[in-house]
From TrEMBL:
Keyword Lyase among record annotations: yes
Domain of life: Bacteria
Name listed for the protein in its UniProt record: Cystathionine beta-lyase
NCBIfam families noted in UniProt: cysta_beta_ly_B
Modified-residue entries (N6-(pyridoxal phosphate)lysine), positions: K205
Keywords: Lyase, Pyridoxal phosphate
Length: 385
């Protein structure tokens, strides 16, 4: 069955008449008829994540969502979290503890870097950063190296890593590879199939798709499932049933939405590239973008994100404030178009020369692209007067 069809049928009860979408099941206590049944439930839940045992381990609504993401990602197990950052923190913590050494790609999501620096370092984890184009980990590995945290395309600047090559290097040394796959969201990109052990998605973004859900999910394959499962159960991570329902409902249109985001994103990237105020457009779908050929090889499309570097002296904040359709916001992946100023070089280690040029990240939503172009053009026109 093709994935577009499977997306419509995740969680469907085929035994008889029933709702098209699985219902919301709210529960904390799960009742049993006997002590023996209770003990059997506790036994089975250790090897079957779909067993209904206690609200802290999710209800059937969350179980259906977790299984849907597991299938999308091509993993052996998926675990839900209340936010994307919680999922990233849980995934990393499962493989890096006191005395261990963790490698992180320098272009990682800033909140991931913040968690690692503020929490893992003080708990005794050694951290080093690697360039985004690393394919051989040998120069960075120590006897204590346990995991490498990657993100591709990169946060804010969208450089594309050669994950198959990096994963071959990591696997040869017994190092776990954790990937932030929020950009691809299980549809455009499949890190587990490329060799990664864990793939993390902020379901707040494209999975839910409607700017009204906070959610994260970590999927794993093979031996990586057990450590991740242990952290999830020990720390009580779960997702409320209403959020699980809303995310599953939003996922039904994931393929269609990303198709529109892809088309509109490329149109707007081309528009920006032709503006005299712009010095560079960062988008993995553009020829010449760092890692573009790798992205064409490993991915099936792009989402609605792009970043723009403007020429020196450009009045960026005034430009953004004048926009009428684009709103100012720090998230992305919803139906709406967003814009925000960024300074990605500020916290990075491998920067040839920190650029003072103003930059902005845009999320191209589901509005008609011509309306978005007209909105941008009107704001540019004020500067020309």
């Amino acid at each position: 069955m093709r994935r577009e069809t499977k997306l419509m049928h995740y969680g469907r009860n085929t035994a008889g008449p029933g709702p098209a979408n699985p219902p919301v099941v709210r529960a904390s206590t799960i009742l049993h008829d006997s002590v023996a049944a209770y003990r059997d439930t506790k036994r089975r839940r250790e090897s079957d994540d779909s067993v209904l045992s206690y609200g802290r381990r999710g209800t059937t609504t969350a179980h259906v969502l977790a299984d849907a993401v597991r299938d999308l990602e091509g993993g052996d197990a998926s675990f839900l979290f209340p936010t994307g950052v919680a999922a990233l923190a849980g995934a990393i913590s499962a493989f890096a503890g006191a005395g261990d050494h963790l490698l992180i790609v320098d272009t990682v999501f800033p909140a991931t870097r913040s968690f690692c620096e503020s929490q893992l370092r003080r708990n005794g984890v050694e951290i080093d950063y690697i360039p985004w184009d690393t394919i051989d980990l040998s120069p960075w590995i120590t006897a204590k190296t346990k995991a490498v945290m990657v993100e591709s395309p990169a946060s804010q600047t969208f450089e594309v890593m050669d994950l198959p090559a990096l994963c071959r290097s990591a696997t040869a040394k017994g190092i776990t590879v954790i990937a932030d796959n929020t950009y691809g969201s299980g549809w455009l990109y499949h890190p587990l199939e490329l060799g990664c052990d864990v793939s993390v998605i902020a379901g707040t973004k494209y999975l839910s798709g409607h700017a009204d859900v906070m959610m994260g999910v970590a999927s794993a394959r093979g031996e990586a499932c057990a450590p991740l499962r242990a952290v999830v159960h020990a720390s009580g991570q779960t997702l409320a049933p209403d959020e699980a329902y809303a995310c599953l409902r939003g996922m039904r249109t994931l393929g269609l939405r990303l198709e529109r985001h892809h088309e509109s994103g490329l149109l707007l990237a081309d528009y920006f590239a032709k503006r005299p105020e712009v010095s560079e457009v960062l988008h993995p779908g553009l020829t010449g973008h760092p890692g573009h050929e790798i992205w064409r090889r490993d991915a099936s499309g792009c989402n609605g994100l792009l970043s723009v570097r403007f020429r020196p002296g450009f009045a960026l904040e005034a430009f953004l404030d004048r926009l009428q359709i684009f709103s100012i916001g720090s998230s992305w992946g919803g139906f709406e178009s967003l814009a925000m100023p960024i300074a990605p070089d500020e916290s990075r280690s491998f920067v040839k020369e920190e650029s003072p040029d103003p930059m902005a990240r845009f999320h191209i939503g589901l509005e008609h692209p011509q309306d978005l172009i007209e909105d941008l053009t009107a704001s540019f026109a004020v500067l020309e007067d």
